[in-house]
């Protein structure tokens, strides 16, 4: 007769081998000790900073929209126009690149060229691209526009290419069998299948581009980020609070607006 | 028998739809042109015309990368990795309770705590980690602590949002089964909910860690330590070969972390 166990232990979910579990736990512990050891904290500086942090919280609770309004509105207009133009140009450029990067629809050499453009655009962070474009094109929103357009190519191009690779081949085949040319297959067989998602992705990218436009200003590419950076440099925390509230508000409007529109369109 | 008049030619869209579409495109183009004009008001076109020459010049100076700079980058690289990892850890610690408060099926009060938790998630998500770092460097002083906190605060929203969606998607029957054995609420949480969301949790965490590696590489631009600090220093003295070297290190780190993250997610999910 087998003795039933009187206690039950929950079986491990992810790592089933006991040795691996211990090894990983030990490794994590060693890493944490090493990592936390290298964090140098200057407590004197932190305590000085706390007073500043308090002033920042005050500035956030009582934001000052008025005294720097011309700067803020200029930054905001730059950000918004930059967002729209870069999304339009970026999407317009990423459509041919996305089509070229679809394995089922482009010849191999085009496929590799388009895929490498997408890979480069995705590997580099917006801020790093912005640094280069500012160095080349000078300060201001034009550099920001180029940065965001370039980043849009990687995002939309990749997702569009994957979408084209996932289409229902039968519909493209049907157009092809009526004697449709390459252009006609694209226009009547593929475009209707990917269009709803392309519009959805473009709206999503519009939302992302606004968020990014608030950041690349820090390295000189114009927009509301530049205004925020200036406000922080001048220790004007009430203006900075106002700018942050504007950014949060715009991002929330963009996010809910774009998700509403996407639901409406699909 | 009524005769339906078939059109002689097949048309993709009706007349009204075509007209609406055409006006939609017109509106978009008009908006684009107007935005373009507002945006380029202050652009100095001579700089833009000069850009190819500048690009060639920078490209010329960037090559070849200064390999001898690599040993100096090892400590900042370690800082960057720590910033991303400890920041993710901080983010997870803050995000898990927030997610449980925000999920419709686990929140203790849907009227009061759920909106607060949702607001925390939205606010954290709408501010980029570079902006968090800008604020925190002013408060905590330059250094990797500010970077860790910035990464952590940004991660709360991301992890919180995905995790609370995972909690809301849990299978009710399993929770019901645990509850039917007479389990207390904390036991239901431990045996009914946690096992269901654990794979998603690890997936989300590793995914965010991967994103955080990318972001922590540039946080130094505003003074939060790591590779970005070296990048900023090199850019300020126009040491382009060093910039190339730093970018190569960042690129290698990013590719490696993406590979690790993809492997772990494939294993877990």
UniProtKB/TrEMBL annotation, chain A:
One of its GO terms (molecular function) is ABC-type phosphonate transporter activity. InterPro entries: MetI-like, MetI-like_sf, PhnE/PtxC. The keyword Transmembrane helix applies. Residues 76-256 form the ABC transmembrane type-1 domain. One of its GO terms (cellular component) is plasma membrane. It comes from the Bacteria. Keywords: Cell membrane, Membrane, Transmembrane, Transmembrane helix, Transport. The chain crosses the membrane at residues 20-39, 84-106, 127-156, 240-261. Pfam families: BPD_transp_1 (PF00528). Its main location: membrane. Gene3D superfamilies: MetI-like. SUPFAM superfamilies: MetI-like. PANTHER family: ABC TRANSPORT SYSTEM PERMEASE PROTEIN P69, PHOSPHONATES TRANSPORT SYSTEM PERMEASE PROTEIN. Belongs to the binding-protein-dependent transport system permease family. This is Phosphonate ABC transporter, permease protein PhnE. It comes from Histidinibacterium lentulum.
Automatic annotation (TrEMBL), chain B:
Residues 77-261 form the ABC transmembrane type-1 domain. It is found in: Cell membrane. Belongs to the binding-protein-dependent transport system permease family. The chain crosses the membrane at residues 19-39, 83-103, 110-127, 133-153, 216-233, 239-260. One of its GO terms (molecular function) is ABC-type phosphonate transporter activity. Keywords: Cell membrane, Membrane, Transmembrane, Transmembrane helix, Transport. NCBIfam families: PhnE. GO terms for cellular component: plasma membrane. InterPro entries: MetI-like (IPR000515), MetI-like_sf (IPR035906), PhnE/PtxC (IPR005769). This is Phosphonate ABC transporter, permease protein PhnE. The keyword Membrane applies. It comes from the Bacteria. PANTHER family: ABC TRANSPORT SYSTEM PERMEASE PROTEIN P69, PHOSPHONATES TRANSPORT SYSTEM PERMEASE PROTEIN.
């Amino acid at each position: 007769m087998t003795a039933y166990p009187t206690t039950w232990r929950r079986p491990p979910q992810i790592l089933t081998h006991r040795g691996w579990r211990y090894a990983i736990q030990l490794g994590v512990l060693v890493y944490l000790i090493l990592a936390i050891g290298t964090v140098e904290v200057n407590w004197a500086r932190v305590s000085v900073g706390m007073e500043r942090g308090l002033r920042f919280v005050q500035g956030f609770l009582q934001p000052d929209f008025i005294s720097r309004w011309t700067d803020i509105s200029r930054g905001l207009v730059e950000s918004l126009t930059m967002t729209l133009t870069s999304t339009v140009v970026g999407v317009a450029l990423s459509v041919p690149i996305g089509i070229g990067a679809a394995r089922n629809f482009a010849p191999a050499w085009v496929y590799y060229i388009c895929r490498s453009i997408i890979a480069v655009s995705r590997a580099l962070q917006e801020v790093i691209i912005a640094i280069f474009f500012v160095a080349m094109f000078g300060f201001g929103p034009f550099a920001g526009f180029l940065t965001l357009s370039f980043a849009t190519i990687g995002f939309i191009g990749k997702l569009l290419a994957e979408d084209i690779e996932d289409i229902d081949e039968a519909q493209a085949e049907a157009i092809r069998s009526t004697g449709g040319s390459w252009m006609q297959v694209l226009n009547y067989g593929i475009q209707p299948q990917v269009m709803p998602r392309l519009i959805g992705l473009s709206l999503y990218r519009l939302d992302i581009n606004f968020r990014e436009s608030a950041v690349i200003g820090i390295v000189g590419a114009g927009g509301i980020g530049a205004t925020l950076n200036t406000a922080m440099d001048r220790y004007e925390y009430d203006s900075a609070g106002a700018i942050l509230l504007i950014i949060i508000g715009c991002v929330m409007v963009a996010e809910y607006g774009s998700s509403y529109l996407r639901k409406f369109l699909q | 028998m009524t005769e339906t008049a078939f059109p002689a030619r097949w048309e993709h869209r009706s007349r009204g739809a075509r007209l609406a579409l055409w006006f939609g495109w017109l509106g978009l183009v008009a908006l684009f042109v107007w935005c373009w004009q507002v945006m380029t008001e202050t652009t100095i076109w001579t700089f833009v015309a000069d850009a190819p020459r500048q690009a060639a010049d920078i490209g010329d100076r960037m090559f070849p990368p200064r390999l001898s700079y690599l040993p100096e980058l090892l400590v900042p690289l370690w800082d960057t990795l720590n910033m991303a990892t400890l920041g993710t850890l901080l983010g997870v610690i803050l995000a898990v309770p927030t997610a449980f408060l925000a999920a419709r099926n686990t929140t203790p009060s849907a009227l009061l705590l759920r909106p607060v938790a949702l607001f925390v998630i939205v606010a954290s998500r709408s501010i980029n980690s570079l902006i968090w770092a800008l604020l925190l460097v002013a408060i905590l002083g330059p250094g990797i602590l500010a970077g860790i906190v910035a990464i952590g605060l940004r991660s709360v929203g991301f992890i919180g949002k995905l995790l609370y969606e995972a909690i809301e998607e849990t299978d009710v029957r399993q929770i019901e089964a645990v509850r039917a054995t007479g389990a207390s609420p904390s036991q239901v949480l431990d045996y009914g909910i946690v096992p269901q969301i654990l794979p998603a949790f690890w997936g989300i965490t590793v995914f965010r860690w991967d994103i955080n590696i990318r972001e922590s590489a540039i946080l130094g631009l505003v003074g939060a330590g790591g590779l970005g600090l070296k990048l900023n220093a090199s850019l300020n003295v126009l040491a382009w070969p060093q910039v190339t070297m730093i970018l190569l290190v960042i690129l290698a780190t990013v590719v490696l972390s993406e590979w690790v993250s993809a492997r772990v997610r494939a294993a877990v999910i």
